[in-house]
Specification:
alpha/beta; Rossmann fold; 5 strands; 36% helix; binds ligand FNR; EC 1.-.-.-; oxidoreductase activity; NAD(P)H-dependent oxidoreductase; NAD(P)H-dep_reductase; Flavoprotein-like_sf
Length: 182
């Protein structure tokens, strides 16, 4: 594929709705796009003392981001912000100072929640971080997805009620990456 996208899921839970969403939405992308979910569950807790000798998991994370033409964040909301595991990954790949792997990578933000506001607060916090990290981030359409019956069909694809909306989101994301990939 011409465009490789690094997908970062903010939940480590086996049956995560956000992971299901990440698995399903990539099927709505054209063939010139390929997607790889990054492992963030094996990263150590970020400690600036380790900047000079990063763990193998950190080197792998940064290499996979650097190799990608874009990033897709799919995250739950925890206590009205992003989960700590996602912040930890963001911090790791942003350092050492001046050697951030995120800089310039076009980004998209998605999230699904069992709560009514569908990760809106978490996404807004995340957008703040992405702005600082110099990642051009798709602004519209916003996608605050409510986890309810029928969101996914029995094969794990996006269900009929959300399909057109999420196809529209993916079409915009694809165009955004093409416009902003270096
Ligand atoms: C939650 N949940 C939650 N939901 C929400 O809409 N807003 C919130 O602030 C929170 N806060 C929160 C904190 C913690 C620690 C947990 C474990 C959960 C509920 C959350 O939406 C639900 O657990 C989702 O299923 C998490 O996403 P995954 O793991 O299914 O992808």
């Amino acid at each position: 594929a011409q465009y490789q996208i690094a997908v970062v899921v903010g939940s480590l839970r086996k049956d995560s709705f956000n992971r299901k969403l990440a698995n399903a939405i990539v099927k709505l992308a054209p063939a010139e796009f390929s997607f790889k979910q990054l492992e963030i569950g094996d990263l150590p807790l970020y400690n600036q003392d380790d900047d000079a000798q990063p763990a193998d998991a950190v080197k792998r994370l940064k290499a996979e981001i650097l190799a990608a033409q874009g990033v897709l964040f799919v995250t739950p909301e925890y206590n009205r912000s992003i989960p700590g595991v996602l912040k930890n990954a963001i911090d790791h790949a942003s350092r050492p100072y001046g050697q951030s792997a995120w800089a310039g990578k076009p980004a998209g933000v998605l999230g699904v929640s069992i709560g009514a506001i569908g990760t809106a607060m978490a996404q807004q916090h995340l957008r703040n971080m992405l702005a600082y990290l110099d990642m051009p981030t798709l602004g519209q359409p916003e996608a605050f997805i409510h986890a309810k019956d029928g969101l996914f069909d029995s094969s794990g694809n996006i269900g009929p009620n959300s399909k057109a909306f999420l196809q529209g989101w993916m079409d915009k994301y694809v165009a955004w990456v093409k416009a902003h990939a270096g």
